[in-house]
Amino acid sequence: MKTKSPFSVGNCHVSPFENKLNHADNECILQPKFIELLCFLTECYPHAVTREELIDNVWDGNQFVGEKALTNAIWHLRKALVRARP
After folding, report:
1. pLDDT in the model for residue 4
2. Nearest C-alpha neighbor of 39 from the set 8, 76, 60, 61
3. For residue 2, what pLDDT is reported?
């Protein structure tokens, strides 16, 4: 992750330093890896990235841990972003 500066994704405010995702009155604390993944995805936007690129950049190329961890992280990010929607 290049920066820990806060940024927005749609109507959500992301605070990487605090591992928080905020929308209106909703606040969600996420695990640091989930925030790191979200940051990497937003840095790459609008370009698509492969699972391998995500594992290489977020899990330092650890395929054994990264494959399942990536699936889990995506699931949790989707859940958090759905909760944050108006």
Report:
1. 78
2. 8
3. 54
Sign of the four-CA dihedral 45, 51, 53, 56: positive
In this prediction, residues 25-35 reach a mean pLDDT of 91
pLDDT in tens, 39-54: 999 999 999 999 999 9
Strand 20-23 vs strand 26-29: parallel, antiparallel, or unpaired? antiparallel
Strand extents, DSSP E, the chain:
7-9, 12-15, 20-23, 26-29
Q: How far is CA 42 from CA 10, 16, 47, 70, in A?
A: 11, 12, 9, 16
Specify the pairing of strand 26-29 against strand 7-9: unpaired
| Neighbour order of strands in the sheet with 26-29 | 7-9, 12-15, 20-23, 26-29
